[in-house]
Amino acid sequence: MPDVRTPARPRPDATGGPTAAELLDFARRTAADAPLVASLPLDPEGRTWIRLDGPGGSEAWLIGWPPGTGTGWHDHGGSHGAFAAASGELTEQSLAAQLPTEGWKTLELADGVDRQRKLAGGRGRAFGPHHVHQVLNLSEDTHAVSVHAYYPPLPLMRRYSRTGPVLRLEEVELPEDWR
């Protein structure tokens, strides 16, 4: 898909890039851009996306979610980020625990680490570099569209499977796997 360029308002943090709060502000403003959101082609079978230029050297994505689709459990390879719903409603399931990033294949999660929130109508959330979650469109008949931004640009994503309290590292994706 073609790149869509959006104006950036960089106000870098101490590492030279935007903070999670600035990424959330960008995601919310971009989610409110009705012509941009309407330009995303929607597919009834699978997610669609357009890569955007985020603020201060971050990367961003406008993503369309058909009913019943989701990401599966994943992290963002050490990047911090944010996302906001532009239309429809998304459910985020996340873990309120910092997981080690290396040296394990299977972890048993403690009780009480599960969190869930619903995001619609411009609502969003920012997260830190150790965030593990999955994002779902649980609707049976309505597409959702959202904006996601990451800094630094995603170096990789770890994908996990989950059975009850057991989280298993399944694969590591590199940027060329999703671009």
From TrEMBL:
It comes from the Bacteria. Fe cation binds at H74, H76, H133. GO terms for molecular function: ferrous iron binding; oxidoreductase activity, acting on single donors with incorporation of molecular oxygen, incorporation of two atoms of oxygen. The keyword Metal-binding applies. SUPFAM superfamilies: RmlC-like cupins (SSF51182). Keywords: Dioxygenase, Iron, Metal-binding, Oxidoreductase. PANTHER family: CYSTEINE DIOXYGENASE, CYSTEINE DIOXYGENASE TYPE 1. Belongs to the cysteine dioxygenase family. This is Cysteine dioxygenase.
